[in-house]
Design goal:
Length: 119
């Protein structure tokens, strides 16, 4: 019973150090830190924890909803950034095309002027 309470307390302590997103991303590292903490405390009892596994994380419905809203906002933000970058590239391409056109027109006019003056 004491070891179970120690494991739960250690898990809560380690989970408290991470954001919810990080707990999903770093589950293996979290398990290893919990094993280390348990072994540090349980060594005095002559016990060793070989493995600790957080199999599933089920946040409350309101937290899941908040995470979904955050993920959706992040997707919209990325889409807006991509749209604006595409628009920027398009405007740059149009401007470069116009510049190139003016250069070619100027060169053509200069060539005509040179040919007219040599006649």
């Amino acid at each position: 019973m004491a070891l179970t309470l120690l494991a739960q307390t250690t898990m809560r302590s380690e989970l408290g150090k991470l954001s919810l997103d990080k707990t999903f991303e770093e589950r293996e590292m979290l398990n290893a830190r919990i094993v280390d903490s348990i072994n540090e405390a349980a060594a005095a009892w002559g016990m060793q924890c070989l493995r600790y596994e957080i199999r599933d994380i089920n946040p409350p419905a309101n937290v899941r909803k908040a995470m979904e809203l955050q993920a959706e906002a992040e997707r919209r933000k990325r889409a807006q950034i991509l749209d604006s970058e595409g628009e920027k590239e398009s405007e740059i391409n149009v401007a470069e095309g116009q510049k190139r056109s003016k250069i070619l027109n100027s060169e053509a006019l200069q060539l005509e002027a040179d040919q007219s003056s040599t006649r």
